[in-house]
Amino acid sequence: MPDDELSRTFAALADPTRRAILARLSEGEATVNELAEPFDISLQAISKHLKVLERAGLISRGRDAQWRPCRLETAPLDAVSHWIDRYRERWNDRFDRLEREIRRVHPGKEGLEHG
C-alpha cells in the first residue's frame, strides 16, 4: 500500500464496496454489522475494507461500551478535492488558451464550447 496520504486515499476509493461504505457513513455513524447488511460478503471481508478506509484516514472507529461505531472523516476527501481542483484550474486555463488560439486562427467562428 502506498505510504503518502493522497495515494492511500485514492487506493481506498478505488474499490466500489469501500465507496458504498463511505456513502452509507455520510448519512451517519454505523456499526460493522449495519455496514455489512447490504453486501453479500463476509463480516471478515467488511472488516478488511474498514481497515483500508481507516488506514487512509477516511473513517474512524469510536468505542461506546460494546458498540464500536464507524464514522466518516472528511479531511482526506478535502485533500483529494484540493488536488483535483489544482489540475482542473490548469485544464480550464489550457482550454481557454486553446479556444483563444482557435478564434485567432479562425476569426468569426462563434459558439465554440468546451466542458
From TrEMBL:
Q: Name one Pfam family in it.
A: HTH_20
Could you list this entry's UniProt keywords, alphabetically sorted: DNA-binding
Q: GO MF terms on file?
A: DNA binding; DNA-binding transcription factor activity
Q: Signal peptide span per the entry?
A: none
On the tree of life, the source organism's domain of life is Bacteria
Question: In this protein, which residues make up the domain named HTH arsR-type?
Answer: 1-92
Cell inner membrane as a keyword?
no
Q: Does the keyword DNA-binding apply?
A: yes
Which named protein is this? DNA-binding transcriptional regulator, ArsR family
Q: Which organism is it from?
A: Nonomuraea maritima
